[in-house]
Amino acid sequence: MDTLKIDIVSDIVCPWCVIGFRNLKQAMQELEAEYNFEVSWKPYELHPEIPQAGYDKNLYMQQKFGSSSGSSPYAEITKVGDSVGFEFNFSRTKRIPNTFMAHRLLWKSEQYNLQTELSEALFKAYFTDGLDIGSKEILAQISESIGINKTDIVKFLNSKEGGEEVADLEMQFIEKSIGAVPTYFINNKYIIQGGQESQTFVSFLKKIIQKENAANR
User: Fold this and answer.
1) Which of 201, 205, 182, 203 is nearest to 193 (CA)?
2) Fewer CB near the last or first residue (10 Å), C or N of the chain?
């Protein structure tokens, strides 16, 4: 059976990363009888300038986009989220977190083979439950909820382990001119970007397999 390696460059505070993965997940389920998938999550910070303690979301939006009296910029995303079975509660999030520590945790979770489970738990914690994913305690609780020993994670979060590795990975994607997420690297060669529809993923992944098999003949 053919295997596709998928590296997902993503940030926890990116709503289109949630939507994109939901559609990718549906595509993988549709193709699982034909292909094996190896998924790995890679770090990207949409707001690297945010202080470690986070920043008031409303103030940040006003400073970046100005005040607006139009419809909510989140209405479309909420609607698309509903269509893929994900609940966005943007009103619950009061602060924009610095996500570097969460990316360190995702890096660590690969050792437990729980990266995808943690990514989905982080998305839900931030977008659905409005939790502060910049908080060590919250991150430890989320880790425990997916089966990782909380004491081990607290010790990890209080250390510097993974910091240099995550920073290096982030720089690699900057050097590859990745300026938006989600971005998907397939077999280290092919790139697809954005919150694509599930059938777009299905078509793209099938074409990659066909091309790879033709090249190997």
Assistant:
1) 182
2) C
